[in-house]
Design brief:
- The complex is a heterotrimer of chains A (141), B (534) and C (969).
- With 141 residues, chain A is mainly alpha-helical.
- With 534 residues, chain B is mainly α.
- Chain B has a two-stranded antiparallel ribbon with strand order 1-2.
- In chain B, helix 1 packs antiparallel against helix 2 and helix 5 packs antiparallel against helix 6.
- Chain B is globular and about 70 Å long.
- In chain C, strand 4 and strand 5 form a beta hairpin.
- Helix content of chain C is 70%, strand content 3%.
- Classes of the chains: A mainly alpha (141), B mainly alpha (534), C mainly alpha (969).
- Chains in contact: A-B, A-C, B-C.
- Chains B and C meet through helix 1, helix 3, helix 4, helix 5 and helix 6 of B and strand 1, helix 6, helix 7, helix 24 and helix 25 of C.
Chain lengths: 141, 534, 969
């Protein structure tokens, strides 16, 4: 089965652009990136269906000339799922703005604490209860 | 009604229930009733399926009665049925727990109208993932359970949960997109997405291509299963969710990934060239994970890291790809689902009773609440692989498999396995020393009254520690007495965990048979495509 | 034996209860468990003495060769007698040791009884894995017992230390046992001993098992945990040191010696570590001033001695070893109990403060002295008899050319023997120190005034003392009893026997040397102490352990700090890199390069493709949110065109609708978000992101090309057209696929939509998914305007418009809406019902309806929306799901498969022939869910956001952390 180069290139370009945005910090950008990638994946799905053809509708196109309906069905499912999740992520972005005034993805606090411990060559605060009222790691320099 | 026609019900019933629950948005009691009934039914059905699948081979349904291999096939073989039963049971227990929590907190303002439908959809998604006999449908199953998990993870949208949720959602979305790519490639190369059909067709592909497909699928599922280095998202996201949610996530979601790995690796890519790769991944997952647990000073996070670490055990079993290895992995999955869920529920109780899950704040719980002590100690030892508990049995199964395989690398994994086991014990014992043995802060000794309790919990939030935006620290909150409605289901799971050791004989036998089926492949393929793979 | 273990288990479980009911006398009840076991064992003696065995096997986990297999032969019998007998005695002793009001007695009772049970199981288990089960159980129980007073930090640390050290050894042992069992093909101990496997694996296995034994028995280098465990209550120490826990290691060595003593590393380990431990322990004991601690170090020393002799592996050594184990158990238990009494009645254990106890409590002193005599191997007590034959055994090794069958050369034998004698001398010395320290009247120390001692309190140690004496004279009988075990070893230089008098032999001389040397050391104790003060231990294993653990903790922190960056972009990058490296690498290396491509199907594709790429690239560079979204839209619509050109009208239609909805939703949200993306210096990471992006894109291209070119079979979908019509009753194959062939996917998909909608609502209305539905009459400005204009708003259509302030209204838009709304709804219904045969279907229809609502909202605000759809979105969603799933279940009830559809052709008046496919109901469900989703999105991100915005304008804070977030039930 031959591949449609145009579609392949379009798909890969969409993926590349999407990934570039995906690695951003602004949740809106991340989301745009995700949608770009999914568009790319959907285009790629067309390629896997083989040659272009007539609409897969009996009576309109004779079966031999039809474009493969199965990938279309799968893509349609994917599109709609993406729509739902897009809406949800946007709502999250809104909520994040509501709470913090921006929609930037922040780093995890606990991990940051451990990283600080590592940088200050300290042990974990739960080590061997050195002092019975150990201060939480967050509090450490 | 033939048992085989029960196969779709573990998915359909919860979805129906979810629909009803949504429609009944205004009537909390009705929602509770629906969820309970549906999940109980699911457990019963799963049990029937397991008995039948174990007795007379895989149960297969072609949805809509379409002639194979056109439509979508659902398959309940020994493995899926077993997974189904365990997950359904755990799901039910957690539901009861969360009901108890709701009752204890007073439901007027709890987002019950969101929780119940979403929770039901989650269980439907998990069931679908276990039953799917079709790669794309497996994807849909994943999406269902993930979508539900997104909502549950960010429930009540506190800033902490939004942050954690963002990590979780975006990572999952990326993995879903990769999964789609993999499916597109599989279809491109083989012209089908039916697993049974694929098991035949993939073999005919040039090795290069099939290896690409295998690695891609493996990567996707490893993200879900939290295999190092694809595991870092988990400890950042799970601990922030409400206790029951974290519990069911920890128990089920990663195991769905493990299940997918087991299924695809055995059915689609037999005699895989990736044994060594998987072994290294398993080793790193164990060690890095457990070191993470040792470094933590907060119970939920510590547990999340042990969760990651022990995924390594299962991957080890899969990597061996021997009957013993797979059986060990399967048994370990069953054990781990039960125990990890239990421990997170207990963590919820600790949070409630001790006002925090931070080891630097807790103390004296063993004296303050002996029952809580037992509820933590027993599953903790179980997780630590202390005999005669199931954790030990699963571990021995895997160690025997490793030694039995005689592979040089396997001995390294065996060593890594016991080290992990020791460090797990160290981590939980450390938590025990601090939270349960150390002299108690005054307020833990005399808990607040039920009324204050309710207020306290309101102020605190659904098992999740609210944080004042300035310094992201858990605000210490007055400890409260434990409601029986939450203790009972937890105790139930603890007992179930111990019972695993009692029924270990038959359980391991089922795992052995399931593993044999997986290696043989023909039972699965032939029952899905009786007329041979076209 | 199973029953006896269950008895222990049961009583342990009841422990706390009994304790609450009976107070400290409950110990007498608990003592029944070991006592009963003891009696049963005694009953077996005749059989065991004749070399017979008692066997029990209950199946447990056949898959793992893990069975509840128990076997009682001489060795097990002896150890079991000690475990149960001393266990019972100590429990009785507890009755007087504890006060009624002591805290945590219930816990203690449970743990102690459980501990005794685990120890009994350990010594009678006949399955390697089962042995390990009990082995670990003793570890855990000892952890809980040592941590009996956990508020004290030292206790917690000691408990944790004991747990970690012994478990570490235990796990090594587990691997060893598995290696052995794997080689032997069985885990049944009796079978393995009968036919010992050989080979490198076995050697490794046995060595690892020895590591376990060494750690359990606190031999060098693990000796430090045992003195630490002294923090436990004295009865625990007595049991731990005399009969339980530490004896497990000795037992394992004794158990394996007949089969594995000749394996390479065996003798170096047992003899080397044994001798070293004996000397080191004794040396430490000699400097202690706390009686209990003195005994503890003494135990370490004695354990080294025991392991060395038991592990030697000759017949006489076996006999002597077992005898020594018995003697040690007796005297060490009674010594600890005596110390316990002293501690309780005088309030101190410091030998510098005690004085004159020999006078004030003669009975206790007598007991102590008898035990001490046994420890120092002074005739005529058991200790002497045993140690005498130990010396004999080692003399044989040195004296016979083949080392009495061990193959040990005379020099090595000599060194070991010398070490043991020296150790014995030290033992005598610290024994003397103990006896003097505990009971002697010291100059300059005021006589201690002990409280009266209850008879029952002394009874226990006294009984043990009497046994020590008795055994001293019962050498012959003891020999006969132990013989069956000893004969497992090859016959040695001469037939061994236990007796007080073996004649003038070298062994006797050695005993004398040891005693005299020891006494000398005691007499010169001042010099010795000065010497000890000067010598600093070269390596302190305890400190080594601390360093190790701290190092581990640091390692954990470092590793976690490195791997757990907590940054989402990094996690995503890692995932993508893995994808590029693994599958991508496989693609490059695997050489799947049979690629054949065509430029395009129709040239237009290239044009649109280019457009899409351009838009995508611009989107990445956009700094304004709106701009980025518009460009995103371009790529979306472009994709729709590609679908159309490919011959996928349904796909194109859906894509267009979805894209439109997406953009509108984006805009709704971005009304609130800042106009520009918050810009930060990204240049550093930009190139990295660009690189990963390009790599990912290339990888995907590569994957698709190679996979597509590798197509090996006709797609399953080739049968779709025929089946769609005949079985699915529809002409539009894609739609038939969605609602019938793969309806199961669609079912999952709409549940995703339902949940997503719920999620959207939950993000805005944090505590409920129910958005209130308002009527225009309640609108803010309308009432005012009614007063102003006096018009009756009931007959005017698009009344919601009046709720907007004039400047927010757009007359043209309202008019357009007015014209379009009904048309759109009708069109959506057309799409729904026509879908089965023409492009369209539930999704398209639902989306169009949703867009109609969206237009209403955009035209005239949130009250307008509620006018257009005065229903709860949740209800619509729920209904949709119910209809869809219901359709599926219906088929089941009619005896079909789930979601099986039926084609019904019937004649309806007026309409004539109606061709009805039941899957249409499923599609209606889909339609409803999609509408519900749109409604929820509009209610939340539209109206909800409006409302919050209005509140803000009224001065409420935008920051609204949920005030109530109680449980999720």
């Amino acid at each position: 089965m031959t591949a449609n180069l145009t579609l392949v290139l379009t798909a890969s370009a969409l993926v590349a652009a999407g990934v570039y945005l995906l690695l951003e910090r602004s949740l809106t950008r991340v989301l745009i990136g995700i949608i770009l990638i999914s568009n790319g994946v959907n285009v790629a799905f067309l390629v896997t269906g083989g040659r272009a053809g007539g609409a897969p509708i009996v009576g309109v196109t004779e079966p031999a000339r039809m474009s493969d309906p199965l990938p279309q069905a799968m893509v349609l499912t994917a599109i709609v799922i993406t729509l739902g999740l897009t809406a949800f992520l946007l709502a999250m972005a809104y909520r994040s703005w509501q709470l913090t005034g921006h929609d930037d993805v922040q780093d995890d606090v606990e991990d940051a604490a451990i990283r600080r411990l590592a940088e200050s060559d300290a042990g974990s605060s739960s080590y061997d209860d050195t002092d019975d009222d150990a201060s939480p790691p967050e509090a450490r320099p | 009604m033939r048992a085989v026609s029960l196969v779709p019900l573990p998915v359909v019933l919860p979805l129906l229930g979810a629909g009803v629950a949504l429609a009944l948005g205004r009537w909390d009691r009705a929602q509770r009733a629906v969820s309970l009934v549906v999940l109980m039914a699911t457990v019963a059905i799963a049990a029937v399926l397991l008995v039948n699948a174990d007795a007379d081979g895989p149960l297969v349904v072609w949805i809509g009665g379409w002639p194979e291999p056109l439509g979508i096939s659902l398959v309940a073989d020994r493995l899926s049925a077993l997974m189904l039963l365990v997950s359904a049971t755990v799901t039910l227990a957690v539901l009861v727990y969360s009901l108890g929590q709701g009752v204890a907190d007073g439901t007027r303002n709890t987002p019950v109208s969101i929780y119940h439908p979403t929770y039901l959809v989650l269980s439907a998604g998990v069931a679908n993932a276990f039953l799917a006999g079709d790669l794309f449908n497996l994807f849909v199953g994943f999406e269902v359970l993930l979508a539900a998990s997104y909502v549950l993870m960010t429930l009540t949208g506190t800033s902490e949960r939004i942050r954690a949720g963002t990590t979780y959602v975006v990572v999952s979305l990326l993995s879903s997109l990769l999964f789609l790519v993999a499916i597109a490639l599989v279809y491109a190369a083989t012209g089908t997405v039916n697993l049974a059909q694929l098991s035949g067709r993939l073999a005919d592909l040039p090795d290069g291509v099939s290896l690409v497909l295998q690695l891609l699928l493996l990567t996707v599922f490893s993200i879900k299963a939290a295999v190092f280095p694809l595991s870092a998202w988990l400890p950042d996201s799970y601990p922030t969710a409400p206790a029951p949610v974290t519990a069911v996530f920890a128990g089920l979601l990663t195991k769905v990934g493990v299940y997918a790995i087991i299924r695809t690796q055995t059915l689609l890519f037999p005699d895989s060239p990736l044994t060594d790769l998987l072994m290294w991944a398993a080793l790193l997952t164990m060690i890095v994970g457990i070191l993470g647990a040792v470094a933590q000073s907060e119970i939920k996070r510590m547990l999340s890291f042990t969760l990651v670490s022990h995924i390594g055990y299962m991957v080890f079993g899969v990597a061996l790809a021997t009957a013993a290895g797979l059986a060990g992995a399967i048994f370990y999955v069953v054990h781990h689902i039960t125990i990890q869920t239990t421990l997170f529920l207990v963590a919820g109780l600790v949070e409630r009773r001790g006002g925090s899950t931070s080891l630097s704040r807790l103390g004296g719980l063993a004296r303050a609440s002996p029952i809580l002590g037992v509820l933590f100690f027993v599953p903790a030892m179980n997780l630590g692989g202390i005999p005669p508990f199931s954790g030990f049995l699963g571990k021995v199964g895997l160690l025997q498999a490793g030694v039995g395989s005689g592979l040089p690398l396997a001995y390294v994994l065996v060593a890594g396995g016991v080290v992990t086991s020791l460090l797990t014990l160290y981590a939980v014992a450390k938590a025990w020393n601090l939270a349960f043995w150390r002299a108690a802060p005054a307020e833990i000794l005399e808990p607040a009254s039920a009324v204050d309790a309710r207020e306290a919990v309101r102020a605190r939030g659904a098992g999740g520690t609210p944080r004042n935006p300035a310094s992201d620290q858990p605000a210490p909150s007055p400890p409260v007495a434990l409601p029986a409605a939450m203790v009972a289901p937890t105790a139930g799971l603890v007992v179930a965990g111990v019972a695993l050791s009692v029924v270990a004989g038959p359980l391991f036998a089922v795992a052995d048979r399931a593993a044999a089926d997986l290696l043989e492949r023909s039972p699965y393929v032939e029952s899905v495509l009786p007329r041979g793979a076209p | 034996m199973t029953l006896l273990l269950l008895l222990h288990l049961g009583l342990a479980a009841l422990g706390p209860v009994v304790m609450r009911v009976m107070g400290r006398y409950a110990f007498l009840v608990l003592a029944l468990a070991p006592a009963a076991s003891f009696c049963w064992l005694v009953a077996q003696s005749s059989q065991v003495a004749q070399g017979g065995s008692v066997v029990e096997v209950v199946s447990w986990v056949p898959s793992l060769d893990l069975e509840l297999a128990f076997r009682l032969t001489t060795l097990q019998w002896v150890f079991a007698l000690l475990v149960t007998g001393i266990g019972a005695i100590v429990l009785v002793y507890c009755t007087w040791y504890f006060d009624a009001d002591d805290e945590g007695l219930g816990r203690f009772a449970l743990n102690f009884t459980g501990f005794a049970g685990a120890m009994l199981g350990l010594v009678v288990a006949d399955d390697l894995l089962l042995l390990y089960v009990f082995w670990e159980l003793t570890t855990v129980f000892s952890y809980l017992l040592i941590g009996h007073r956990p508020e004290r930090r030292a206790d917690r640390r000691a408990a944790l230390q004991a747990l970690i050290v012994t478990t570490a050894g235990g796990l090594a042992m587990l691997v060893g046992l598995i290696l052995i069992g794997n080689e032997a093909g069985t885990y049944r101990i009796s079978e393995i001993l009968a036919a010992p496997p050989t080979g490198a694996a076995v050697t490794a296995g046995v060595t690892l098992a020895l590591v376990g034994a060494v750690s359990k028995s606190a031999l060098v280098p693990f000796h430090f945990w045992l003195p630490g465990a002294m923090v436990a209550p004295t009865p625990v120490s007595a049991y731990l040191h005399a009969a339980a826990m530490v004896k497990a290691g000795v037992y394992l060595v004794a158990l394996f010696a007949p089969a594995f003593a000749d394996i390479g590393p065996w003798r170096p380990m047992v003899l080397g570590l044994g001798a070293a431990t004996m000397a080191l322990g004794a040396w430490h004991a000699l400097r202690q001033s706390d009686l209990k601690l003195l005994l503890a170090h003494g135990t370490v020393s004695q354990l080294g001695f025991l392991v060395a002799i038991v592990g030697l592996g000759t017949r006489s050594a076996a006999l002597a070893g077992v005898a020594m184990v018995v003697a040690h158990a007796l005297f060490k238990a009674s010594l600890f109990l005596v110390v316990g009494i002293i501690d309780r009645v005088t309030g101190t254990r410091d030998l510098r403060e005690l004085s004159g106890l020999a006078r004030s409590m003669p009975l206790v002193a007598a007991t102590g002295l008898v035990a001490a005599a046994s420890m120092a191997a002074i005739p005529p007590v058991a200790g002497f008899v045993a140690k005498e034959s130990v010396f004999i055994a080692f003399v044989d090794v040195g004296a016979t050319p083949d080392g009495d069958g061990t193959g040990i050369g005379p020099i090595v034998a000599g060194i070991v023997l010398a070490a043991l004698v020296a150790g014995s001398a030290l033992t005598v010395a610290y024994t003397a120190r103990f006896a003097w320290g505990a009971f002697a009247t010291k100059r300059g120390v005021s006589a201690t005034e002990p409280a009266p001692v209850a008879a029952g309190f002394v009874a226990a140690p006294a009984m043990l003392g009497l046994l020590s004496i008795a055994l001293g004279f019962a050498g012959a009988a003891e020999t006969a009893l132990i013989e069956p075990y000893a004969v497992a070893f090859p016959p040695g230089a001469h037939v061994p026997d236990l007796a007080l008098w073996h004649g003038l032999e070298p062994a006797l001389a050695l005993s004398v040397v040891a005693v005299l040397g020891g006494l000398a050391l005691f007499v010169l104790r001042d010099r010795v102490e000065r010497l000890q003060a000067r010598t600093v231990p070269m390596v302190d294993a305890g400190r080594a352990y601390d360093t190790l653990m701290r190092g581990l903790d640091r390692l954990a922190v470092e590793v976690t700090g490195t791997t757990q960056r907590g940054s989402l972009p990094i996690y995503l990058a890692v995932i993508l890199v893995v994808v590029v490296v693994l599958p991508g690498g496989a693609l490059v290396l695997g050489g799947a390069w049979g690629v054949d491509v065509r430029a395009w199907d129709v040239p237009a594709q290239a044009l649109i493709g280019g457009l899409i790429v351009a838009a995508a690239v611009l989107a990445t560079r956009a700094r304004r949110r709106l701009k980025a979204v518009v460009l995103l839209g371009v790529t979306g619509y472009g994709t729709a065109l590609l679908f159309l050109l490919h011959g996928a009208p349904d796909l194109a239609l859906t894509q267009v609708l979805v894209e439109t909805v997406t953009i509108v939703v984006f805009v709704l949200v971005m009304r609130r978000l800042p106009v520009y993306f918050s810009d930060r210096p990204l240049t550093s990471s930009r190139w990295g992101r660009l690189g990963i992006g390009l790599l990912a894109g290339t990888a995907v291209a590569g994957f698709v090309l190679s996979a597509t070119s590798a197509r090996i079979a006709e797609p399953v979908s080739e049968d779709f057209p025929a089946e769609a019509v005949s079985f699915g009753g529809g002409k539009n194959i894609v739609n038939v696929t969605l609602v019938d062939i793969r309806a199961w996917d669609t079912l999952g998909e709409i549940s995703v939509l339902a949940v997503a909608a719920t999620g959207v609502a939950s993000m805005v209305f944090v505590h409920t998914r129910r958005a209130g539905i308002a009527r225009p009459a309640e609108g803010p400005t309308i009432a005012a305007r009614r007063r102003a204009t006096g018009d009756d708003y009931r007959n005017t259509w698009l009344r919601g418009g009046r709720t907007l302030t004039p400047e927010r209204r757009s007359i043209i838009f309202e008019v357009v809406t007015r014209l379009s709304f009904h048309t759109m709804i009708v069109f959506s219904l057309f799409l729904l019902f026509a879908g089965h045969n023409n492009p369209g279907g539930g999704f398209a229809g639902g989306l169009v309806a949703g867009l109609a609502l969206m237009v209403r909202y955009l035209a005239a605000g949130r009250y307008e929306l509620d006018e257009a759809a005065p229903v709860d979105a949740g209800l619509v969603l729920g209904l949709g799901l119910v209809v869809a799933t219901g359709t599926g279940l219906m088929a089941l009830l009619f005896g079909g498969e789930v979601l099986q559809s039926a084609v019904i052709d019937l004649t309806v008046p007026l309409l004539g022939e109606v061709h009805l496919v039941t899957s249409i109901f499923f599609d209606i469900g889909v339609y409803l869910v999609v509408v519900g989703l749109m409604l929820d999105v509009l209610r939340s991100l539209g109206s909800g956001v409006d409302r919050l915005a209005d509140d803000d304008e009224e001065g409420e804070p935008a920051e609204r952390e949920p005030e109530v977030v109680g449980g999720v039930g």
